[in-house]
Amino acid sequence: MDKEHYKRFADAHAPASPLGRNCLRAFWVGGLICVLGQVIRWGGERLLGLTEETAGTLASVTLIFFAALLSGLGIFDRVAKYAGAGTLVPITGFANSVVSPAIDCRAEGLILGVGAKIFTVAGPVLLYGTLAGTVYGLIYLVVGLFL
Question: Using CA atoms, how far apart are residues 57 and 21, in angstroms rounded to an integer?
Fold first, then answer.
C-alpha cells in the first residue's frame, strides 16, 4: 500500500471532526483563561498597588501555578480534552507541557524520572526559542551598526 492509497483509506475511515463546536469550545475556554489573567493583573494593580509590569508578572506566575496544580491533579487534561487548543494559551499550555512528563515519570524517582524527563516536551521550545532570540538579537545588532 503506497502513501497516497493509505491516506485515502485513513481519511475515509476517520470520524468527522465537529469543527464548529471545537472552535467555539477553544474560543470560550481560551478566552476565559485570558480574562482570568487580566483580572489578576488588574487586581494586582488596583488592589495591591503593583506597577503594571509587576502585576503582569503576578498574573503570569499565578496562571503558571494553577496550570501546574491542575495538571498534577489531573484536571487540566480533562479541560484540554474538552477545549482542545483553547488550553494552549501559551503560558498555561507551556506549564502543562513541563509538568506532564514529570508526573508520568515520577515512579522512576526524582533524579532519573522527574529530573530527566521534565523538559522532554518543553526543552526544544526553550532551546530553539533561546537560539532564535540570540540570532535575531545579533541581526538587530549588526543592522543597527550599519544604519
Answer: 33
Distance, in Å, from the CA atom of 89 to the CA atom of 55, rounded to the nearest integer, reads 19
The secondary structure of 40-83, three-state, reads HHHHHHHCCCCCHHHHHHHHHHHHHHHHHHHHHCCHHHHHHHHH
CB 33 within 8 A of CB 86: yes
Sites in the chain below the pLDDT cut of 70: 106, 114, 121-122
Locus of grid cell 491542575? 70
Pairwise CA distance, residues 87 & 76, whole Å: 8
Measure the CA–CA gap between 117 and 105, rounded to whole angstroms: 7
2-15 pLDDT tens trace: 888 888 888 888 88
State the CB neighbour count (10 A cutoff) for residue 1: 6
Query: Cα separation of 58 and 28, whole Å?
Result: 23
Among 40, 90, 111, 100, residue whose Cα is nearest residue 68: 100
